[in-house]
Amino acid sequence: MDQRLYPITEEYFAATILPLIEGSYIWKGRPPNISHYQVFCAILYVLRTGTPWRDLPRCYGNWHSIYTRFNRGSERGLWWHILITLQQRRQLKLNIVLADSTTFKVHRHGGGQKGGS
Q1: Which of 53, 76, 74 is nearest to 65 (CA)?
Q2: 6 touches 41 (CB < 8 A)
Q3: How far is CA 33 from CA 17, 28, 29, 89, in A?
Q4: Would you say residue 104 lies in a domain?
Q5: Which residue in 35, 4, 17 sits closest to 83, CA to CA?
Q6: Each residue of 38-69: pLDDT tens digit?
Q7: What is the pTM of this model?
Q8: Residue 29: which domain range?
Q9: Which residues contact 53 (CB under 8 A, 6 or more apart)?
Q10: Angle 3-8-13 from CA coordinates, rounded to 5°
Q11: 112 domain residue, yes or no
Q12: pLDDT digit string (tens) for 17-44?
């Protein structure tokens, strides 16, 4: 497997991350076609590269299925739970960078219409 597409091993994923994911899900309907490992690696790929969901490599599976599972996990707070748990176990160092509109230069017409009287 390509290290860039699958940045963590399946053994590490099964031992540390999979129990967190399975503990959060309530399974209804048919089982998923795409494994949790592929979905997790696809999410890491999108977050790392900034690529649109539609441009995911085909090796991960259908992009819409991956996006749907990401969205459902986000609504439940699953991904934050995984990050916080890994950071508490000292298996992850998390740096968050926030930026607002004062950080980036914008074209003079990019700020919207002039308001006020």
Answers
A1: 53
A2: yes
A3: 19, 14, 12, 31
A4: no
A5: 17
A6: 999 999 899 888 889 999 999 999 999 999 99
A7: 0.74
A8: 10-88
A9: 46, 63, 64, 66, 67
A10: 150
A11: no
A12: 899 888 777 777 788 888 999 999 999 8
Asked if 73 and 67 touch (Cβ cutoff 8 Å), the reply is no
On whether residue 58 sits in a domain, the answer given is: yes
Determine the straight-line distance between the first and last CA of the chain, rounded to whole angstroms. 62
Q: What's the structural domain count of the chain?
A: 1
Of 88, 97, 87, 33, the C-alpha closest to 64 is 33
Tokens (6 digits) for 88 = 């508490």
Planar angle of CA 104, 108, 110, nearest 5 degrees: 70
| Two tokens, residue 23 | 């503990």
Residues comprising the chain, all counted: 117
Rounded Cα distance between 76 and 90, Å, is 23
* Range from 26-35, 50-59, 71-80, 101-110 carrying the lowest mean pLDDT: 101-110
In 3D space, the residue among 80, 68, 86 whose CA is nearest the CA of residue 17 turns out to be 86
Q: Assess if residue 48 is contained within a domain.
A: yes
